[in-house]
Structures are given as C-alpha cells and as structure tokens.
Fold these 2 entries.
Entry 1:
Amino acid sequence: EVHLVESGGDAVQPGGSLRLSCIASGVDFERTDMGWYRQAPARECELVATISPGGVPTFYADSVKGRFTISRDNAKNTVYLQMNSLKTEDTAMYYCAQGQSRGQGTQVTVSS
C-alpha cells in the first residue's frame, strides 16, 4: 500500500517562500513518477508539477512556472516542491501524488 506524507505547509506573506516535502513508502520510489496537486476552496484540483524517476521535471502548471521547482531525493524516498515568490492565489491544500494515490495534504496560506 502506497503511503505519502506531506509536510512543510505554513502561513506566509506574499513574496515569501516555502519548501514542501513528501516522504513515500510502499512504492518502488526510484522507478516512479511523482507529482504535486493543489486544491483551493471552491476551485478544481490542479496539477502543479511532476517529476520523472530520474529527477527531471516533466510538467509545471502555467500558474507556477518560474516560481516553483519540483525535485526529488531517491535515497530518501522524498519529493520536494520549492515555492518562491508566493502569491495569494497559491493558497491551497497541497497534495503529493503517485499514480492514483494522494497524501493527506499540507496547507499553504499566502496572506498579508
């Protein structure tokens, strides 16, 4: 059974930065694509970024290009999402994803 645990969410001011982490278990981590989704109130779930098993980012949503960076450490079974220049519209619950599996999410709130 795949188990994903996210952390790193917090409340920050616009322009701030956060780094989200997700530790995966129950999966052959170094052979699988990983991704991050986000869900804001009253909005559809949005795919934010994905990364190949070898660590090459394969997708960024237009809304985060140039501000967010996805990366991974296969030795630690961990995928990261570095978020810079945060905007109020980045406020959402952020979920780590592997295939159809999701973690419990970590809340990011951007507000002045």
Note: The first strand starts at residue 3 and ends at 7.
Entry 2:
Amino acid sequence: VQIVESGGGLVQPGGSLRLSCAVSGLSFSAYAGSWYRQAPGKGRDLVARIEYLGGVTNYADSVKGRFTISRDNSKNTLYLQMNSLKPEETAVYYCNLYTFWGQGTQVTVSS
C-alpha cells in the first residue's frame, strides 16, 4: 500500500491550499478517508473524514466552513481544500485510510 500526499507549502494567512492524497495497492473506494494534522510538539488531530462513497463528511469544529474534504474514487485520490488558513494551522497534514498513513505534507501559514 502506498499513500502519497502532495500540495503542501507556504501560504499567507487567509490564503488557500489544496492537498491531494494518491492511494495505490488498496481498494480505495471501500474505505473511508481522513485527513489529520500534527503541529510541532502536539498530537495528531483529525481534521476531516469522508465516507467511502463520499456522501457523508465530518469536520473538526475549528475548520467547519473553511475546509472541504472530497474524493475521486475513479482516481484513487482524496482531497482537502483549505481556505482562510490561519497561522495556528501550520502543521504536517497526513492522509489516512484504514490503518495506512502517508508520510505527510508540510503546511506553513505565515506572512
């Protein structure tokens, strides 16, 4: 199983980024997918989750209305659209399906 995140980078406060998570070696459409983040010195927290068909989504309260999780089962890819980013959201963002994790992608929100 290979999970590869991309799309992270440096963005100014209030800016946007779109993260992608490409999955291979796993029946992607059979599993819910999630995004987590881990800030320096802190634990790994759930950001958003989407059911296997994409019809049901859940978000951490802190990102509701600003982040959107989605998936394309035909491309085995999970996405996280992040808008109105805040400096405190600087973290490594991880993609998760079942027990499998990607290596993470760094998001830095700073002016």
Note: The first strand starts at residue 2 and ends at 6.
